[in-house]
Amino acid sequence: MAGDRSFTLSEIARRLDVPQHRLIHLCEKGVVVPEVHGAAGRGSSRVFSSRNFLELAVALRLRDMMLPVAAVGAVIHVLGVFEGRLQTDLPHFALVDSLRDDRAPDLRVIISDGQTIYFSLGAAGEQPKLFGGIPMDQLEGHTPAWNGQIEAVRFRGNAPNGSGGLGPENSHYGRLELSVTAIAQTLPIA
Amino acid sequence: MSIMLAAGEQQVDGAGRVDPDLRPLLDHIATELAQEYIRLMQAAADAEIAAGISAADA
Questions:
Q1: Which residues of chain A lie closer than 8 angstroms to B40, CB-CB?
Q2: Which domains does chain A have, with CATH numbers?
Q3: N or C: chain A end with fewer CB closer than 10 Å?
């Protein structure tokens, strides 16, 4: 199982084939917090969990898609809490192991019209359910924070045949979609 | 204002950290995702059991 392994920063950089400074940047921005051991001083090195490994891989992909750091941080935060909630019911649950299973649900991040973040979740071959959205301008502190209204996080029905907009979230102009499940399944962690 | 760091101290600017005001929203989404994930995993397990029974009956 990958769930109980740990990795150094240089090892993850090598496995993901990215320069170390990109991973360091994500840590120093607070996007990914090393779960095993943080860098506390000179000579101290960060040690990452398997979930951190997935978080870094997802964060890199989202940054490649030009998503702002604050928005990437929000997505990674949701993934962390998501795993924590599942561990409440299933104490041995490990997100990476679960998503790498052949029958794993498809968990995706959707950026709608460059303004709102959604998550979608569904079994293969079925219509996914939509969760969100998270207004990106609030993440960057441009408007007042969430007012607590549940309306912002209700389920939304999927548009029949895509009518009325793009994707299940009904984007008006454009959308970006990233499969966390696909990233987990191709994560060079074994 | 400048901030002096002690030798070896890491600077974390926190731009990627979540605003505490937004945490309830993000945590709520994570909770709903977890509930749906459990439902989907249970459905997949049930389908596998049903497929196994069908195969045994055939």
A1: 105, 121-123
A2: 6-185 (1.10.1660.10)
A3: C
Angle at B17 between CA A56 and CA A184, to 5 degrees: 20
Report yes or no: B5 and B11 within 8 Å, Cβ to Cβ.
yes
Burial class (CB in 10 A: 0-12, 13-18, 19+), B4: exposed
Could B29 and A119 be called an inter-chain contact, meaning their C-beta atoms sit closer than 8 Å? yes
Which residues contact residue A40 at a Cβ distance below 8 angstroms, ignoring those fewer than 6 apart? Answer: B10
Confirm whether the ipTM is greater than 0.90.
no
pLDDT tens profile B6-28: 444 445 566 777 888 889 999 99
Q: Which residues from chain B sit within 8 angstroms of residue A139, using beta carbons?
A: 18-19, 22
Alpha-helical segments (H) within B1-58: 23-57
Contact A41 B9 (CB under 8 A): yes
* pTM for the whole structure: 0.83
Q: Block means of pLDDT (10 residues each) for chain A, length 190 residues?
A: 82 97 95 80 77 97 94 96 95 95 94 94 89 87 57 46 74 93 94
